[in-house]
Amino acid sequence: MSLRARLFAMTYDRLMAKTEEVQLGALRQDLLAAAAGDVLEIGGGTGANLPHYRPDVGSLTITEPEPPMVRRLERHAREQAPRAKILRAPAEDLPFEDGAFDTAVSTLVLCGVSDQPRALRQLRRVLRPGGRLLFIEHVRSGDPRLAHHQDRMNWLNQLVVSCDCNRPTLASIQEAGFTVTDVEHLTLYKAPSFASPLLVGRATAPVGATGQDGQLVRHNLS
């Protein structure tokens, strides 16, 4: 366990407090109103989404790979969502059977996973056919000038918050086989320009079998 990971977990809630108050909290509330059935959240962090899940979800499972975050997540879950199941696991290797969930949630996570395409394939694998992916992510800008600036400043973003600010996450979601049904392009409050492009959206998993690591299996019906 690195000192950097411990410090990040200790300071995360304070660093994000104002942004949560004026923007992210409301975005989480609106988005997670659509979470239903058996719900999986990846990269739960310290538990910022916990207050926003409806009490009538069928089940709530939250994964988080970093031990310092897991400890804070478990403490907050005991207070705010005692029925939630907390597991230490990376998004790239989810320890669940195929088609185990109706809804998957990713909020400010896909920027930091080590292998974004693999994480998205895993999400598609564990979702039931037609299941929903709900996401809030800061992403690569569609403005070429800002995108170039993001490329130049990505080293700093990685150093400070351990994630990439210039990932084409929306395209990655679509390339993983999801159909994006709703997306809103926003600006993250009080973030530097290179980390400010923000997406809020919903996508659906394909109706079809998946094989190893979420690869879509296409059956020849002729």
Order of helices and strands: HEEHEEHEHHEE
Percent strand equals 15-25%
Low-confidence stretches: 217-222
What name is given to the CATH topology? Rossmann fold
Average pLDDT for all residues = 91
Report the CATH C-level class.
Alpha Beta
Helical proportion?
A: 25-40%
What does this structure look like?
The radius of gyration is 17 Å and the shape is globular. The protein is α/β, with parallel strands linked by helices. The chain has one domain: 3-Layer(aba) Sandwich (Rossmann fold), CATH 3.40.50.150. The C terminus is likely disordered. The longest helix has 30 residues. α3 links the parallel β4 and β5. The protein contains five helices and seven strands. α1 packs parallel to α2. It has a seven-stranded mixed beta sheet with strand order 3-2-1-4-5-7-6, with helices on both faces.
Question: What descriptors fit this protein?
Answer:
seven-stranded mixed beta sheet, alpha/beta, disordered C terminus, 7 strands, 5 helices, Rossmann fold, 222 residues
Reconstruct the topology from this structure.
Blueprint: H1 3-32, E1 38-41, E2 59-63, H2 67-80, E3 85-87, E4 101-107, H3 116-126, E5 127-138, H4 144-161, H5 169-175, E6 179-187, E7 197-204
Parallel strand pairs: 1-2, 1-4, 2-3, 4-5
Antiparallel strand pairs: 5-7, 6-7
Helix pairs in contact: 1-2
Summarize the structure.
Helices cover 36% and strands 22% of the residues.
